[in-house]
Amino acid sequence: LLESADGGDVELDVSYQVWGARWYPSYDIRIEDKQSDEENNMKVTLKLI
Fold this sequence. Notes:
By secondary structure, the chain is mainly beta.
């Protein structure tokens, strides 16, 4: 869960506890800013290469 009261840059570190993995993660993160009182949506797509 990632929440922020104000907009701005965010640095997010993700680590995996998988020993001997032969894949590399690639992320596509998109945030939808509706400019209203509604909650904003975030979509994270993980591709294992």
